[in-house]
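Section 5: illustrative case.
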């Protein structure tokens, strides 16, 4: 009887060990699937948004800055800023990623800090301040860029 009791305990321990291995395997597989799903959603959200947006933004010492931003489906980004009544313009480029309703741009020129935009609709985005908040005040409408 004693030998039979030991065999049952060993069988139970084997069963518990197999169950633990199975649970660990399931958990590790599910984590990988979630990561792959998250990456797919991130890639899909990046490619679903693209287009060229433009507007006339305020300028401290000129009539305005003509801004043209292009978000390409391959996540590349270009920016053209033309200062009115001046012979100066600036071009920049980089990569962009969509994070919910926010677009974050990292410029190729590492000296330029990253910049963010808020998707307000299919045809408008808002230029955000350094704290990733919409610009307030009487000129706030000038920071809304429209799709071409």
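Designed sequence:
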């Amino acid at each position: 009887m004693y030998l039979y009791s030991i065999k049952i305990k060993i069988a139970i321990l084997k069963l518990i060990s197999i169950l633990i291995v199975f649970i660990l395997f399931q958990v590790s597989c599910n984590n990988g699937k979630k990561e792959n799903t998250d990456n797919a959603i991130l890639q899909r959200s990046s490619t679903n948004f693209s287009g060229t947006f433009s507007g006339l933004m305020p300028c401290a010492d000129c009539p305005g800055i003509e801004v043209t931003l292009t978000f390409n489906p391959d996540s590349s980004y270009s920016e053209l800023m033309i200062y009115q009544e001046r012979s100066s313009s600036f071009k920049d480029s980089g990569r962009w990623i969509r994070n919910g309703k926010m677009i974050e741009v990292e410029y190729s020129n590492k000296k330029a800090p990253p910049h963010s935009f808020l998707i307000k609709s299919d045809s408008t985005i808002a230029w955000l301040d350094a704290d990733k908040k919409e610009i307030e005040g009487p000129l706030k409408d000038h920071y809304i860029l429209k799709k071409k």
